[in-house]
Amino acid sequence: GSLGTLRPSPLSSDEKLTPLKSVTGYNNFYEFGTDKEDPARHAPGRLKTQPWTVTVEGEIKRPRTFSIDDLLKLAPLEERIYRMRCVEGWSMVIPWVGFPLAELIRQVEPNGQARFVEFVTLADPQQMPGVRSPLLDWPYVEGLRLDEAQHPLTLLAVGLYGEVLPAQNGAPIRLVVPWKYGFKSAKSIVRIRFVREQPRSTWMKAGPSEYGFYSNVNPAVDHPRWSQATERRIGEFIKRKTLPFNGYADQVAGLYSGMDLRRFF
Amino acid sequence: MTFQPTPRQLTAIKAALFLLTLLPALHYAHGLWSDSLGANPIEALTRGMGIWTLNFLFLTLCVSPLRKLSGWHWLLRLRRMLGLTAFAYGCLHLLTYLWLDQFWDVDAIARDIWKRPFITVGATAFLLMLPLALTSSHAAIRSLGGKRWQSLHRAVYAVAILGVVHYLWLVKRVALLDPIIYALVLAILLGWRVVERIRLNGPWPTRSTPPAVQPVVFMKRDAAAALGVPKKR
Fold first, then answer.
1. A20-256 adopts what CATH topology?
2. What's the pLDDT tens digit per position in A142-174?
3. What interface predicted TM-score (ipTM) does this complex get?
4. Which helix (H) or strand (E) holds B189?
C-alpha cells in the first residue's frame, strides 16, 4: 500500500531513478538464496511482516520493543533518493521512504557507554529458505559507530517508490547507509543493540580480509578479488567512476578525519 | 552393434552439431535484443560466455571416453568442432571483459591481470587455447607430426583445469556450489584418462608393455584414411 504524502528531502539525489522492476528484481538477500533473482522469487508471500517487533536494548536509558506500527509513527516519513553501491560493482538510484535513525536513537537515549550500534536481522528457517544452509553465520548482523548511526543521512527505511517496502528489499524495516557498500544496510531488522565494543558483522566473520567493519565506498581500496574503481549503474552501458563515500564525501568525510581508510576498510 | 555413419550421415551429424553450438550464442543475442537477461544484462552475458566456454571444453574432453566406451570411433571426427567452439566462446567471454567491463582501458586491464589471481588464471587459460586453435587444421597436424601435435594438444587439460580454477576463484564463498560441480565433472573426465593410462601402460610413466589399443597416429596415411582425412596428393 501507499505510504501517503511524503516530505521531500534536501538530502535526495536528483539522478535518474533505477526502474522499480530492477530495484525489486535484482538484489542480494541471502536469507532467500544467493542468486540476485532469488529474493524476488522467494521472499514475497513467505516473509511475514505483520506482526513485527523491533527490540531496542543495550546501553540506553529507555530500552523498548517497538511494533512496526509504532515505528511508522515515530517520525514523519520522508522520501530520500539515494545512490546505492553494491560491493560487487553495480549501483542503483533508489527512492527510499523512511525516517532518520537518529530520531529513534534520540527517543531511546543512549548512555555514556554506548559507542556502537548493532543490527540483528530476522533468521527464520520457516520463512527464509537460505537460512537453512550454513552459507553465513545467521542471523545476519551489521554494525555502525554511534556517530555514523546518528548521521542525518542514515535512514531507517520502511518503503520505496512511495509504497510499503517489498519483502525482497528487507520488509518491513531496514537500514540504509548510502555512503557504505550495500551489505551494511541490514534488512528485516528485529533487534537494535547499543554496545560498547565494535560488533563483529556477519561479513567480517565470513571473510575478514575481504570485508571490514567500516566498508565505506572507496574507489582507492580494492576488494581483494576485484577493483572498486568503477561501477555499472543498472540500466547503463558505460561504467561510471566510483566516487569516494559513494559521492557523499561532503557530508560524511568528517566522520573519518585522521583515520587511515586503507587500514580501516 | 556399433553404429558407423556413412560419410553423408557424418556430414549431416556435423552440420547439426554446428547448429547446436550456435544455440547458446543465439540465446544470449536474443536476450540482449529483447532485454530479457535481467537487470544486469552485461554481467549475465559475461558469465554466460564463460560458462559455455567450460561446457564446450568439457564436451571436447568427453569425446575420448565416449569413443572408448561406445566403440564409436567416428566421434573423434566431432572433436575439433567442439574444441573450436569452446575457443570461440572463450573469445566472446574475453571480448565482453575487455570491451563491456573494461572498455579497452589498457592500464586497468594490465593492473587487473597482474593483481587479481582469478583474472591471471583466466588470461593464462585463454593464451593456452590460442596455439591449440591455431594448430587445429589437418595441415597443422601434418606439419607438426602426430606425436608432437598430440603432446601440444594435451595442453587442453591445463586449459580446463585453469578454467575451473578461474571459476572457483571468482565466486563468493557462498556461491561455491556451481564451480564445485564443474570441478567434480572435470575430475571425473581427467581421472578416467589416468585410470585408462595405468590400465594400458602400467603405472605412469613406465611403458614396459606396448599399449593394448593403438592410439590414433595422424601421420600414418592408412590411419588418416580410416578417419577420412583427405590425402595429400
1. Sulfite Oxidase; Chain A, domain 2 (3.90.420)
2. 999 999 999 999 999 999 999 999 999 999 999
3. 0.85
4. helix B177-201
